[in-house]
Amino acid sequence: MAEKPPEEWLKQADYDMDTADYMLRGDRRLYALFMCHLSVEKALKGLFQSRLNVVPPKTHNLVYLLDKMGCTPPEVLGRFIVR
To answer: How high is the mean pLDDT of the chain?
Structure first.
């Protein structure tokens, strides 16, 4: 797979969040939640690539991505991500 520029990760994250909104309006809550996770994951991977100048790892673990970047989100957000 070819390397995506960080902007592409963010573009896809935005698209996925729009999809989550659409799913939520259609009362498809499980799919909305999945798309929200996917959106945050892609945004973090874009940030990962931008900050570390390496291709992000193939993982769905948001905490892992944050830790590898040395990012500590505010406590409330951190607890939400862990859950």
So the answer is: 94
